[in-house]
Amino acid sequence: MKKISICILILSVLTFCTSVFAITIESKKQEIDMDKNKGHFTGDVKVQVGDVIVQSPRADLDLEPETKKPSLATFFDKPYAYQIKGNKKHEVKADIIKVSLIKKVIIAQGSSQTNVLENKKPTIIITADTQEYDTNTNLMKATGSVVINYEDMVATSDNAYALTDKNGDVKNIKLSSRAMIKQDRSIIKGDNIQYSKLRQDIIVSGNTLSDVTFENGDRVIINARSQQYDRKSNTMMATGKVNVKYSDYVADGPKAVMHINPKTNKPEKIIFIGRSKIVEKGINSVEADKITMTVNPKTFEAVGNVKTNIEQDSTSSSKKDTMEFSL
């Protein structure tokens, strides 16, 4: 076994000198084999890479064969990593944590959990089979049984991406494959779900489903190819083979926009755009190019080639440009 260069002192503390940052390793026992480009550390291992600190019972270090600079640090036996920036603390727990010292990428494998705390209170918690964080781009990738607790939402999917700014605040979250968000008494499902904190909207695509229960007990179920919920305007828009179930009504059409009262959090009206049809209790129906349904009082305004079918008294069919009525 060759002796290590001056950049690595064989003490209880080893400091690797690089042009970008210093890597400090503390442990009870250390073995460095320069011929095999390997380092082994056991007993209360503590490694600091820049402002990231990793603690574990044992760790391995890979060196580049030519330069002998550290390239990969692998931590075993449920290591713990953390980073503190101001009043924020980022924590990572897993069965194994790997830190790529060249690419500046942290990989957590096996029962991984990431916590972001602000003033010691958790703001986001992510659990998954595997998580990868790129410190260059501030992009986090999670794979396998992903669960994200963020603000008042709980999101699940097979894969997830979270983009943060330099301060560690979440900018965007993207869920893919069997994605779902639960928020209060609402459930949103789709092949892909994207959340933007700046725009305050949720965009859902591919086999989408929204199941919303309001405070007064009203329930709206929407199926469509894509859906978008805008928190700023308090609207939910669905496009592509839209099917809406609300109270005793079932509606079908190419596009629908639901307006929600921001104070009461109740639906105020639903506007169906394009040739649409609403059926009440499977009997009465209205079909038109545009239909506006007001929730309270429950009325309809149909515009453009209107066709109605009312079964209470007698069956009738009419075609007009505009019709307004209450069922």
Number of alpha- plus pi-helical segments:
0
CATH architecture of the domain at 184-327: Sandwich
Q: In one word, what is the shape? A: elongated
Percentage of residues in helical conformation: under 10%
Radius of gyration: 28 Å
Strand content: over 45%
Low-confidence stretches: 1-20, 314-320, 322-327
Describe the fold and architecture.
- Residues 1-20, 314-320 and 322-327 have low confidence and may be disordered.
- 0% of the residues lie in helices and 70% in strands.
- 30% of the residues are buried.
- Strands 5-6-9-10-8-7 form a six-stranded antiparallel barrel.
- The protein is mostly beta strands.
- The chain has a domain at 184-327: lipopolysaccharide transport protein A fold, CATH 2.60.450.
- The chain is elongated and about 90 Å long.
- The chain has strands spanning 13-16, 23-26, 29-33, 38-49, 52-63, 70-76, 80-85, 88-93, 96-100, 105-118, 121-134, 139-150, 153-164, 170-183, 186-196, 201-213, 219-230, 235-246, 249-260, 267-280, 284-294, 299-309, 320-325.
Task: Using brief descriptors, characterize the structure shown.
327 residues; mainly beta; lipopolysaccharide transport protein A fold; disordered N terminus
Question: What order do the helices and strands come in, and which of them pair?
Answer:
Blueprint (H helix, E strand, L loop, with lengths): L12 E4 L6 E4 L2 E5 L4 E12 L2 E12 L6 E7 L3 E6 L2 E6 L2 E5 L4 E14 L2 E14 L4 E12 L2 E12 L5 E14 L2 E11 L4 E13 L5 E12 L4 E12 L2 E12 L6 E14 L3 E11 L4 E11 L10 E6 L2
Antiparallel strand pairs: 1-2, 2-4, 3-4, 4-5, 5-6, 5-7, 6-9, 7-8, 8-10, 9-10, 10-11, 11-12, 12-13, 13-14, 14-15, 15-16, 16-17, 17-18, 18-19, 19-20, 20-21, 21-22, 22-23
